[in-house]
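Lab meeting, item 3. Inverse folding demo.
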């Protein structure tokens, strides 16, 4: 099992707009996907984008529920908000260790991508699944979650992150998500 080094905030690869993955997928890209899944699970995290492993490609793997879900591979994903509801939740990022922040996201999104076999992959996601998708697709556009904060005080060291709960309440939402992605 190959585990990949994860880029930390500050490395320029995380600020770049990633390029589409050429189709059909090469053997090298298939190997990258396997290594990304292994790296995400080992971290552990609920999602990983290729730029986080220094590959500026539009490719993400997610596993919103590590117990229940199989890993999902999305190549060249596009997201479209469904409705206008935004929800606030606490996020972490494997590229920003030891920090957490309150981030507003669309509650429901449609995703359009291809899977690792090159087949169309589309559907709707809500709640935490939608949050993970938005967090990971942001990585493909060079966006890290601190850029989405509404208030700098919504960012906390993990050891103080319990204090985010009161701030989250103030946003009148009830999401308490805190997995790293
Ligand atoms: Ni992240």
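The presenter then showed the designed sequence:
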């Amino acid at each position: 099992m190959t585990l990949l080094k994860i880029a930390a905030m500050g490395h320029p690869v995380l600020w770049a707009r990633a390029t589409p993955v050429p189709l059909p997928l090469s053997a090298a890209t298939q190997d990258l996907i396997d290594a990304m899944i292994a790296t995400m699970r080992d971290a552990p995290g609920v999602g990983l984008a290729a730029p986080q492993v220094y590959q500026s490609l539009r490719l993400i793997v997610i596993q919103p529920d590590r117990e229940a879900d199989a890993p999902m591979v999305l190549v060249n994903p596009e997201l479209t908000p469904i409705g206008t509801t935004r929800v606030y939740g606490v996020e972490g990022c494997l590229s920003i260790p030891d920090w957490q922040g309150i981030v507003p996201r669309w509650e429901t999104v449609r995703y359009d991508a291809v899977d690792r076999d090159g087949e169309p992959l589309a559907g709707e996601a809500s709640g935490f699944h939608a949050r993970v998708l938005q967090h990971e697709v942001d990585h493909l556009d060079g966006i890290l979650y601190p850029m989405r904060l509404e208030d700098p005080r919504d960012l906390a060291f993990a050891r103080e992150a319990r204090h985010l709960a009161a701030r989250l309440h103030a946003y009148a939402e009830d999401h308490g998500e805190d997995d790293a992605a």
